[in-house]
Amino acid sequence: MQDQEFNVDEIQQLVKKHYKTVGIVIVLLIVGFSSFFQVGTEEEAVVTRFGKHVRTVTPGLKMKLPFMEKVYKVPVERQKKQEFGFRTQQAGVRTTYSRTGSVTKDEAVMLTGDLNLANVQWVVQYRVSDPYNYLFKVRNPDNTLRDLSEAVTRQIVGDRTVNEVLTIGRAEIASEVKVLLQEMGREYSLGIEIAQVVLQDINPPESVKQAFNAVNEAQQERETLINEAKSEYNKVIPRARGEAEETIQKAEGYATQRVNNAQGEVARFNALYNEYIRAPEVTKRRIYLETMQLVLPKLGDKIITSEDGNSMIPLLKKTIK
Questions:
Q1: Which of the residues 17, 181, 209, 257 has an alpha carbon 20 to 30 A from that of 276?
Q2: At 155, is the secondary structure helix, strand, or coil?
Q3: Rounded Cα–Cα distance for residues 227 and 243 (Å)
Q4: Are 63 and 70 in contact (CB under 8 A)?
Q5: What is the pLDDT of residues 288-320, one digit of tens each?
Q6: What is the model's pTM?
Q7: How far apart are alpha carbons 208 and 231 in whole angstroms?
């Protein structure tokens, strides 16, 4: 029993003797562990000393002053997104969305420039570009960005007609929202860079959707009829122009032919007249015979008699040459 008490006393004395050394070791361990920190590959760290920003460090194993400096890690390479008018319930191969709830409905319903309503659903993708501004310049930068996104989108949509919003103006609206939102983000020192604004879906409100679809169908039918009329016009008009040109060319050719024939006949007549002047009887006889040679074959089989009818001369078509 006395040996056990001696051992306990001995241990107590040993602890008292090395108490300071153990304490120093523990303090050094605490200081050592609190002096180093690890920054991830997608992160940057903002270091403050007594609440004042002193530096921003990149990924890797870093060192800080223990108890005096504090580290705030920010994922600067991670893509973030905010959804408006809907919420993603489950992401994957078949992503499911929710469009119910008063919050999503209030976000989606917007007034266009021609005083119509439209349900606009969009996504803002962004990342942190300035960790210091993101942490300390604005109290809640993500909520601020959300409010700015809704305000900017309503402003841009309010400058367009409902047809532009629903059809041809979607890409232009998304581009303008991105540019204006980035400008306002810099003005508010959010420390955020807008990567992309995507208009997910745009539809008329359910109360007027049926009427709006009827109007769209009528407009599409009108466009179809206009395109068909233009197509028919493009078929008929060129063909008519071609036929008119062909008729004109035929008429010009016929006129040229008639003029040439007339000129030839005039030349022939002049030649015959000159011959007639030189030898009237011979020319008259030759013209007579040539005319009969042309006329008699067209008469068929005829019988030619003399003036008193006493004698008949058979005249066959084949014998006349």
A1: 257
A2: helix
A3: 24
A4: no
A5: 888 888 887 777 666 666 666 555 555 544 444
A6: 0.59
A7: 34
